[in-house]
Amino acid sequence: MNIGLDLGFGYVKGVNSQNKRILFPSIVSIGFDRPLAGIFNTNDIIENLHVRIVDKTGENSYYVGNLARREGFSDSFTLDIDKYTQPEAKALLSTAVMLLTLDSEPEEPINLVTGLPLKQFQAHKKAFEEELKNYKALISLPEHKLMKTIEFEKVTVFPQAAGAAYYALLEDLDRYLYTDSYIVLIDIGFKTTDYIVFLIEDRPHFLPDLSGTIDTGISKIFTAVEQIYLAKTGATIDTAGLMTILKKESIYFKGKYVDFTEELTALKKELARLIEKRIYATLKEVFDRVSTVFIAGGGGSDLYPYLKNIHADVVLVKDAQFANALGFLKVAEMNR
C-alpha cells in the first residue's frame, strides 16, 4: 500500500492508494484507561484515539489528536522543529499509518513517503529515512479492540512544499511550462512556512538556493489571540479554545459570544505581509520572471485572501491542506 503522510506541526494529514484520508491535530498526551469511554463517547475512532504502542523502547499509552486536545494531561501542540527525533512524532506517525491500513491485509507491504521542512531536509533526511526503515511497532486501539503491526518496506523522505508542488504542477503541467520562467510555491503551516522555487526549462528544475524555510506560521496568530483573549475576558484559554476562535472567529464566554473577527483579520494581514516580505527579499532578483505563485497548506487557505495580490497569477492549490500528503502519494506511486 502506498501512503503519503504529512506530519505537520499543527495537523497530521494522510492519504493512501485507496484515497482514504485521515486528519487530526498533532497533539499527544500520556494516556490512561477510560472506563467510562463507552458511555458518553461516540464510536468515531478518529475522535477517540487512545493508542498503545509497543516498540523497542517499551510499551507506552497515549491520547492522540482530538482526544488529547479534550482530555489530555497536556493539550498543546506536541511537535517542535526537531520533530523527527521525538517519541511523540512516532506516536503520531504510527497512529496515522494504522488508521490508513485498517482495511489492508496484515502482510501487505507499506511504501511510505513523508516530509521534512526544507530547513531540516539536507541535514536530517538520511537519518530520518533510516530510523523509519528500521522502525517496527505493535499498535493497538484498546477501546475499539483493534491491533496492527507497523513496519515499512520502503521509506522516502521528501522536502515539504515539494510534495505540494508536485501535486499542483501534475494537475495541469502544460499550463505552467513557460520556458525560462520561474514557479514559486508557498506552503504555510502551523509553525513554519516553506517556499520552493522551480526554473522551467524542458521540465521544472528545483532551485534549492532560492528555496527555504521561514520560522513562522499560523501558531503566531495563536500566540497573539491568547493575549487578546486575556485582555477581553480577563481569563486564560486552552488550545481547544484557540482552535475554536481561529475556526469560528468567536467563542462563548459567560453567557455571550465574544467576537474576534476584527483582530483575526488584522493578524492574518500582518502575517501574510511578513511572509511576503521575507520571500520577496530572497527572490527579488527573479520575481519579475515568476509566472505563477502557488499557495498551499492549511495556513495557506487562511492567508490566501491576503496574499492573492502579491503577483499577477496567485493560485490557491486545490485541497490546500492535503496538498503535501497528496503530492507525497504521487511520489510513492511513481517510486513503486
TrEMBL record:
<protein>
    <submittedName>
        <fullName>Plasmid segregation actin-type ATPase ParM</fullName>
    </submittedName>
</protein>
<feature type="domain" description="Actin-like protein N-terminal">
    <location>
        <begin position="4"/>
        <end position="163"/>
    </location>
</feature>
<dbReference type="InterPro" id="IPR049067">
    <property type="entry name" value="MreB-like_C"/>
</dbReference>
<feature type="domain" description="Actin homologue MreB-like C-terminal">
    <location>
        <begin position="185"/>
        <end position="308"/>
    </location>
</feature>
<dbReference type="Pfam" id="PF21522">
    <property type="entry name" value="MreB-like_C"/>
</dbReference>
<dbReference type="InterPro" id="IPR040607">
    <property type="entry name" value="ALP_N"/>
</dbReference>
<dbReference type="Pfam" id="PF17989">
    <property type="entry name" value="ALP_N"/>
</dbReference>
<dbReference type="InterPro" id="IPR043129">
    <property type="entry name" value="ATPase_NBD"/>
</dbReference>
